[in-house]
Amino acid sequence: MTCFFLTYQVNTIEMKESDFSESDCHLASELFDMYDNSVIENSEVLVIGNRHFLLSKNDFRNLNEEQKNTLELISLKESLINPVYVEIGSEGELIID
Amino acid sequence: MTNIKDVIRVKIPFPNIADNLATQSHMYLCIQEGKSKKLLSCQTKKPSLLHKNKPPFSYVDCKADITKNPFSRDTLIACDYCFYLDNIHVDKALLTTKRRDVCDQTFSQVQMKIAHQSFSQKPIDGATLISINPLLSKMS
């Protein structure tokens, strides 16, 4: 079975087709499917500790100091799963998913 | 009135963080209506949720599609267990806004996925839930 992502250039790790099981290929295709180019182009990632917060470019530009401080507090919450989606609500509140 | 197939969105504050600063958005699919409601959790699809050895073990994978569901991101409807909510009224304002429900096809996929022996229900403490969500109230 040919894994389509082997056609991408990888600089640090040499990959052989035999390194990938069918379920790896399935997972890889799910990942490609999950984050299409428009999502990637319109998003910024803010890394705080172990948390990767995903915001639209617009919300990222508009983040104020209080909101950044709040994200620092939120980054300590164990229950969150990366990537953590963040939107700015109409009242300036952060909506976390 | 919440009906079977409806999706509700509940905003839950973080402990020790004021809710005007941040809230966590949770969505639930109603699978039993009336005085005793049963709800399934709907989670945004993330890579770590797809692990075979980690929950959710059973789920319905929904692409964001307004013709089929109200989800704005690809979402997993978790089918390992349901939440059981007794005697709680859900205000209409909590229904998802773009559309209120999932389509018949998605709902029958859910019904197939929950028809397994280990499917269980977890009671939710109504008083706590009401205290953090003003749009939930005790049924009179």
Your description of this structure?
The complex is a heterodimer of chains A (97) and B (140). With 97 residues, chain A is α+β, with helices and mostly antiparallel strands. Chain A is built from four helices and four strands, in the order ααββααββ. The longest helix of chain A has 13 residues, at 22-34. Chain B is mainly beta. The longest helix of chain B has 11 residues, at 104-114. The two termini of chain B are 14 Å apart. The relative contact order of chain B is 0.22. The mean pLDDT of chain B is 92. Chain A binds chain B through residues 23, 27, 30-31, 34, 66-67, 70, 73-74, 77, 81-83, 85, 91-97, and chain B through 11, 14, 16-17, 19-25, 44-50, 52, 73-74. Strand 4 (94-96) of chain A pairs parallel with strand 2 of chain B, so a sheet runs across the interface.
